Amino acid sequence: MLRLYRFLKPFSAMVTGVLVFIFLQTMGDLYLPTLMSRIINDGVMSGDTNKIMQIGGLMLLVAGGGVVSAIIAGLLSSKIALGLGTILRSKVFQRVESFSLNEFDKLGTATLITRTTNDINQIQMVTVLIMRLMVSAPMMAVGGIIMAFREDRTLTWVLAAAIPVLALVIALIASRGMPLFRLVQVKIDKINLVLREKLTGIRVIRAFDTLDHERKRFDAANADLTGNFIKVNQVMAFMMPAIMLVMNLTSLSVLWFGGIRISQGSMDLGALAAFTQYAMMIMFSMLMLSLMFVMVPRAQAAAVRINEVLDTVPAITDAEKPNESFTGRGYVEFKDVTFSYHGAEKPVLRNISFLARPGEVTAIVGSTGSGKSTLINLIPRFYDVDSGSILIDGVDVREISQESLRAKIGFVPQKAVLFSGSIMENIKFGYDQATEEEIKHAANVAQAAEFISDMEGGCAHEIEQGGANVSGGQKQRLSIARALVRKPEIYVFDDSFSALDFTTDALLRAALKKETTEATVIIVAQRVGTVMDADRIIVLDEGQITGMGTHKDLLNTCEVYREIVSSQLSEEEIA
Length: 575
What we know:
575 residues; alpha/beta; ABC transporter transmembrane region fold; Rossmann fold; four-stranded antiparallel beta sheet; 20 helices; 12 strands
């Protein structure tokens, strides 16, 4: 957790201020029992009202200064904690943004959300407590012991016996509770995962009438988290009674032995009253530290999880000296590329080689699991190849900066993703500087203009989270418009026409052909009708190229392609 506090450097002045004001507050609190002793001895015992008023006024002044110091220290502590939380969220978000898909696959979305929200909140809460309690409690304990020793050295032996007992009680309880607190964050991850799946898959759940099954899954995760908290609370429930027992026994011992010393004339009443206050201060400081043992273990577990994200080095990074000496515009070349996912037993793609040129349409077809989507995910460098190379305009993608590489590509993923906001904002996501005319033109080419005009507000119509208020085909067309408005050198369509009817598909492909005459187009498709007119069709089977050529050529030379065609078209259509 200490590693995370290196981000407190911008708040060094505030931290200093907190320490100063807590010191002033502690000194004031330690001075008050001494003043009370003087009132009892010099005022009450002698009946001197003026002395009582004089010392009482000083006590009020000291107490008021302590209150002001506590308020300022609390305010600064809150600002420091919130500032640290803001910085951590920003750092975690920036690091997650730099992750390749490989890191996302390893960590998982649910745990990244928990670490960015719940875990950082734990750090914020503990930071406030550290600033207020862990700083003031040692000061209060040490100062209290010194002041108590000054009041009566003999009676201090009572504290010498009580403090180790109290520390032992706290240590025993904390040692039992800390492992359970570390499990809490893992349990929260699990419940977030189940809840996220339930919310995102609600349509499927209802369609298959599995509400009871999902409810049992959630109840199991919920019961697991609840059971863990119950175990923690069972352990921590012993803390307060045990501490209060030690504190009360200490008070009783102080009064018992103090009374004996007063009767012997070795101690006056004011000193006993002050000593009792100091004993309570010391015990209370130990109690404050015990509260830290409740919060710190959970925050420590959260800090470890946050550090895991911050310490994760992205597998895909820019070269130290990016090479952007391009020799063309839109050329995509695969040279003997082999790729396998992390932990996979065998490669997903093997010995892939082809060249896609500007002004041409390159289509990729194959059975499910043949590696089509994996292949095109290598073009924008979502993953790095195991061997071989991918060249964009003559330069290896690993030598190009990611920003420059992806600026060349208009990518439409297999799962159309829309963001909450207006239709215009979703299309402008592809190019922030796009004008209204360019947005309308992209929508026309994507065959989206008609349904956009039918919506209330047109391009200003609000899209709900995840595009819940538009159909699958509308999502795909808006995603295509988002890529078109970018006007890239290379268009990559990953099965982006699957939700379109045949008429819309044909109209869209015809419009795209006119729009992309100078660009390279790479299409992954399941429908043969979508790729029949492509300049080059690449047939994948079990991660290898089994055929490459035009539709007519492949019908004569590639058995796999013939099987795909015959499964979709009649003999007359094939002929």
